[in-house]
Amino acid sequence: MPNAMAHRYGAAVGIGCTIAIHEHNNGESSARPVLGAAGGALFGTLPDILEPAFHPNHRQFFHSFAALGLVSIGLYKLYKWEPDDDFGKAVRGVSMLACGAYIVHLVMDAGTPKSLPLVGGI
Hints:
single chain, mainly alpha, 66% helix
């Protein structure tokens, strides 16, 4: 079962590599992959902050396939959003990092023997 460090590392690698591939495909080069990896590491345990892992059956709504779907829809909406000002762009970037890290966390948990509940308790 992934622990907090594994979730942080998985989110950092997943998000950093995704941004690097996106930049490579668009002929860009910046520090965004490194910043994305740092953000992924920061937000990699967000589901466990919402539902602390005090016992083996802690996975409820915030660790469910329903939450995975909702966060994925949110990430898609953020990806399509084109803010006009720098503040909006910053909010979009940080929100996309948080959603991406949340998704990586849940995908890692889904691959464990306990997996994720469909909806879980609220």
